[in-house]
Amino acid sequence: MMNIKAFTLVSAVERELLMGDKERINIECVECCGRDLYVGTNDCFVYHFLLEERPVPAGPATFTATKQLHRHLGFKKPVNELRAASALNRLLVLCDNSISLVNMLNLEPVPSGARIKGAATFALNENPVSGDPFCVEVCIISVKRRTIQMFLVYEDRVQIVKEVSTSEQPLAVAVDGHFLCLALTTQYIIHNYSTGVSQDLFPYCSEERPPIVKRIGRQEFLLAGPGGLGMFATVAGISQRAPVHWSENVIGAAVSFPYVIALDDEFITVHSMLDQQQKQTLPFKEGHILQDFEGRVIVATSKGVYILVPLPLEKQIQDLLASRRVEEALVLAKGARRNIPKEKFQVMYRRILQQAGFIQFAQLQFLEAKELFRSGQLDVRELISLYPFLLPTSSSFTRSHPPLHEYADLNQLTQGDQEKMAKCKRFLMSYLNEVRSTEVANGYKEDIDTALLKLYAEADHDSLLDLLVTENFCLLTDSAAWLEKHMPLQFFSFLFLFFFLIPFQLWVNIVNGDVQDSTRSDLYEYIVDFLTYCLDEELVWAYADWVLQKSEEVGVQVFTRRPLDEQQKNSFNPDDIINCLKKYPKALVKYLEHLVIDKRLQKEEYHTHLAVLYLEEVLQQRASTSGKGAEATETQAKLRRLLQKSDLYRVHFLLERLRGAGLPMESAILHGKLGEHEKALHILVHELRDFAAAEDYCLWCSEGREPPHRQHLFHTLLAIYLRAGPAAHELAVAAVDLLNHHATEFDAAQVLQMLPDTWSVQLLCPFLMGAMRDSVHARRTMQVALGLARSENLIYTYDKMKLKGSSVRLSDKKLCQICQNPFCEPVFVRYPNGGLVHTHCAASRHTNPSSSSPGTRT
């Protein structure tokens, strides 16, 4: 957990302003409507204050409360709840189980004396369904047991419109349209009082702690769940956000997007709805009220009222960026979209992405930086300007103000580390090469190409000449000195290559029709062959797009037919090629097939990518034929083969893509890859009614596996066939065919226990004959193997007895056949030829095979 300062707690109503020197007066409830603040106390008074907000340039705003008046309601009970209905100029006051209507300005009760009796608590419907602008909809929990009532409240009268009974006693309620979110004694539920339909959400023990039910937006509620979780629930009974983890002792909650604020006995905690992390903790003792009113969050103790003033989101984001917490800053920035006008947000968000990009760049996280620069539409000259002298002297560029980063130049950023500086220059070369032909370069191509030329020259990069001989916007007058300094010998050599490449460009012009020449009608294929075997990598990349635009199927051969030794040298990285082919779907499929099927590269990304491309093409074909074609297309057959043969693709990802696509066969294959064989076979049997496919599934899925695995699959399929159902007869026929055609794949004893007693022996004759034949064969094979093992054991036993049968005579005159020294003790090693050696000599011979040996040791 990393804290940020999202809110500041400021006082709104001091104790002296509310109660003076009266010690026993306590705040029971508060209500805020615009600048009007109402406070209800335990001695049955309602106080009206006028809030005045005073912005402070260097800090959070302050509030001044001016007391307007207070009025006693005529009871001896505390004021339990206050709700403002500004459209009616009425304040709804719950006191002594009765809701009274009073004027918001003078706190006088309405002359008609209209009130709602028998209310334990109540909530306003902020998404009303009546359509009448001169009334508000009020939902009360009645003092009558297990009863909810809906009322329409007008300026001077109330009208009951609905009474709902619940299964348990309701304790808290929030309303949205026709939907009630209720906390019952043991669970939360969503109830549609229009249709009478209820949906359980999750259990909750109200005896351990009071429930919390709060409407936080259209058709969405925040609930206090078990285990200290703040749970989100929609009227559909689902959660579209992950829960936040707050204290076990939370007594109040409020929402100020993008934060959930929770109150317990000692603290106010702030949690992000975007990443569910706790962001801030504010000490606050004796608090018992926490509510949000039109974006203003108010918290109160029994003696005072306070306001949580949010820091501007832009300030919070900049604080996060200053702390190098890029991910949190980006999450918060995305979440701020709903609170900021669209145009202002886009400008702000682009700047934040650019700042985040420079932070990642300074940490040498170049891939992340590049993506952020692209997403933030960075003026690439901001990046070039970090590198001294790369921008042309004629460039009019000035850095953004306020600055996007804190660095003067690359030397300061790397602190003079030459290795880091070299990495930064390699990144800029790569990045400029990528963006120079995109919209990013529009308007300042001279700056980009000139900077790239200088970087290539300094690094003696192979791409320098390629840059010069192709269309470019380099300012040679600005770069000449740089070229002479870094590569004086090569400065003029590029002219030779330029003239060498003219014939190749001429070929391209002829194929394009820019030059008329009918000498060769197959010139395009010749160019493809030339590029296929060309060793100049830059030249191949320069014309790859051109050959692919002419023909994707032929052009891709530039990459698929390259010699194997060149591929092994990594001259052409497959990832780079795939990135190049993204604009050419047919060529991309051909190249991935080349990698996966022809070259058998074991890389998950390639297998998954190919499967996704197959799937997308299948879905497009089905859409164009309105899904009527029952025959599998060629692409669909390729997809199935890939799914069956490969074990490298992301199964869960593809299964999610297949959801609802109407491709049950492919779904079954994927379930099989997950080991969910029963689910896969269920699809083949009950959805497709393809019994042959189910049998094939058992065969290919057990290919290369142990026999028990295949037997398990066939038994699973048989069990599915034998389950009673609407198509029991058809499945019974399939079961008989399965047994009769694959008798050797089953455990006959287990099958006989599974079969219905009504099946005849004649029906299963082929299965029984096959099972018997297999059983007899297995038994005889085991007998043969056992006999061979016994014979081998008998041979070894004979050899052992023969060796033990002869005596060995050892005397002090007997010499070791290796070292030729006599034996000093009766310990020796005997070889089959009868030779005797010392044990240490035998060990030495064993570790040194080049030494002489009398024979094989026993």
UniProtKB/TrEMBL annotation:
PROSITE patterns, sorted: CHCR, CNH
- Cellular component per GO, a single term: cytoplasm
In what residue span(s) does the CNH domain sit? 24-297
Its subcellular locations are: Cytoplasm
UniProtKB keywords: Cytoplasm, Membrane, Protein transport, Transmembrane, Transmembrane helix, Transport
Residue stretches of each CHCR repeat: 562-726
GO biological process terms, semicolon-separated: autophagy; endosomal vesicle fusion; intracellular protein transport
**InterPro entries assigned to the protein according to its UniProt record, in alphabetical order:** Clathrin_H-chain/VPS_repeat, CNH_dom, Vam6/VPS39/TRAP1, VPS39/TGF_beta_rcpt-assoc_1, VPS39/TGFA1_Znf
Query: Which residues span the membrane?
Result: 489-508
Signal peptide (residue range): none
Against Pfam families, the record matches this protein to: CNH (PF00780), Vps39_1 (PF10366), zf-Vps39_C (PF10367)
- Name-wise, this protein is Transforming growth factor beta receptor associated protein 1
